[in-house]
Amino acid sequence: MKSGTLFGAMLIGGILLSAGSSMGAEAKGASSIVLNGGSLGSVTFNHGRHQGMFPDCQPCHAFFPKESQVVDKMKGAGKLQRKDVMNMCKKCHKELADKGRKTGPTNCKECHKK
Question: What is the pTM of this model?
């Protein structure tokens, strides 16, 4: 009987641990996000890589609420103009490059894919 109780406790503990770890992953958002890039094609934003490089989420999330399809919603509400996101990304990438740090792309075809 004791081994059955131990097995049950281990099973429940495993379920709770896996649920907790997946909840933590969900709180971080998607690992990559595909953005509508207009006529040049979609842009895949590597959210997970940015999280690994920058522990403080506020530089982006002070401006972009943490919700699905937020860029399209903000554009639809007139809170975001056509190239605002691109300009924000390019500015950050150029600032990192100027500091000699590894950075992301700064030209059109490196981000936009048809």
Answer: 0.68
Number of domains making up the chain: 2
Instruction: Tell me if 92 is assigned to a ligand binding site.
Output: yes
- 93 annotated to bind ligand: yes
Domain encompassing residue 12: 1-29
Indicate the DSSP class of residue 105.
Answer: -
Task: For residue 111, say whether it is annotated as part of any ligand binding site.
Answer: yes
**Rounded Cα distance, 13 and 56, in Å:** 32
Q: Specify the 3-state DSSP secondary structure of 63.
A: coil
CATH number, domain containing residue 55? 3.90.10.10
- Looking at the structure, tell me whether residues 19 and 39 fall in a common domain: no
Give the pLDDT confidence of 76-100 residue by residue, as tens digits.
999 999 899 999 999 999 999 999 9
96 labelled ligand-binding: no
